[in-house]
Write a structure and sequence with these properties.
By secondary structure, this protein is of the alpha+beta class. The protein is built from 4 helices and 4 strands, in the order H-H-E-E-H-H-E-E.
């Protein structure tokens, strides 16, 4: 059973094949008691997610959203020009709908400061 970068490379190499052939080609196959083949889809997809950096374990660990991914602390400007922070980050900071922030622009940086607090507080 392939894992990590080997798994990602094999998936890319196999290209547009059926899901069964993809699972089989990456080695996620076992034998049933009667000798027939069993494709281990769950193990394959878990390994694929892990290879892509998505962890499904430790669901209650701090720094993760409900989906189980680790927070990257990187935001990307969307095509419409918006900068989305995301629910996992606002939940980590215990922010609620209606909370207000001052936007401070610095040299190549944006700082969000809770309304009514001083710049020195974090």
């Amino acid at each position: 059973m392939l894992k990590g970068s080997d798994l990602l490379a094999k998936v890319k190499e196999l290209g547009d094949v059926s899901k069964s052939e993809l699972v089989r080609g990456c080695g996620y196959v076992s034998s049933k008691k009667d000798g027939t083949e069993r494709l281990n889809f769950t193990a394959f997809y878990e390994a694929l997610l892990e290879a892509k950096g998505v962890s499904l374990g430790d669901g209650g660990a701090q720094g993760r959203g409900k989906g189980g991914r680790k927070l990257s602390y990187v935001a990307t400007v969307q095509g419409n020009g918006n900068l989305l922070v995301g629910k996992a980050y606002t939940a980590t900071l215990d922010l609620a709908p209606g909370d207000e922030f001052e936007i401070k622009l610095g040299r190549k940086q944006i700082r969000l400061i809770p309304a009514g607090s001083s710049d020195e507080e974090e």
